[in-house]
Amino acid sequence: MQNLTHVSEFHLMGFSDDPDLQLVLFGNFLSMYMVSVLGNLLLILAVSSDTHLHTPMYFFLSILSLVDICFTSTTVPKMIVDILTHSRVISYVGCLTQMSLFVLFCCMDDMLLTVMAYDRFVAICHPLHYAVTMSAHRCALLLLVSVFLSLGDSQLHNSAIFLSTCFKHMKIANFFCDPSLLLKLSCSDPLLNTVVTYIAGVIFGFFPILGIIFSYYKIVSSVLKIPSSEGRYKAFSTCSSHLSAVCLFYGTGLGMYLGSDGSYSPIRNMVASLMYTVVTPMLNPFIYSLRNRDISRTLKRILSLRV
Known about the structure:
Elements: E1 2-3, E2 9-11, H1 19-49, H2 56-85, E3 89-91, H3 92-125, H4 130-133, H5 136-162, E4 166-167, H6 179-185, H7 190-223, H8 229-259, H9 266-290, H10 293-306
Antiparallel strand pairs: 1-4, 2-3
Helix pairs in contact: 1-2, 1-9, 1-10, 2-3, 2-9, 3-5, 3-7, 3-8, 5-7, 8-9
């Protein structure tokens, strides 16, 4: 057990200690990071360059891509540097900063997916009121609320760690400063940790999932009332990419936090975290470009101009 006044650093966990695998891990993680960043940048470029895509749905999609870049950049560059330097040490301040940014961008992802579900609900169930309901002022307000709530959760986790007077040990069983693991390592009141966990779970888990389920329940009910099969297909096609992203985000997120349970091995927890923090942001641009004809057409035009 280490007193907080003497804590200067934490020790992260690596995927392998085998020297022969370090170059392979470095190449894989660097490739995944570059694909994630470039893919999301291309998506932002596509939305900003095509005036036909200047709608609330694509506005939130471009913000989601920006948040995904920040989300994966919070953890992956540090992991890549650790592989190169053969050092898995992170300072106390650096760890808290990484944890705060991780929580911030994770919650932003969560809130944006919920807002995008609301956008699809209004577009399909109340198309005549869409322009008024999803006005530029309303979109800016929804974005500000998402940022405000995400910052609040980030500071809530920070405060819980700051209130801790000591840590049980300095080893974090993950490749980044996982907030759930840091709370377990802290010697603060278990009730406080439980309250923080439940508040975050309700605000960024229960309510968003409930909102998304309600939105899609109303969407499905409205679409089934459309007489033509072509009309039903067109309506469902506008939601398919978002629904795929929602399933990927919550599916990998659930795997990550189930993996942080003590009954699971640390390496399984790290693989689940990798899926959540690296693979999901990397796949989102492919989901939205391959399953959305507007984005796909704009990207082809941009790439043909570059060639």
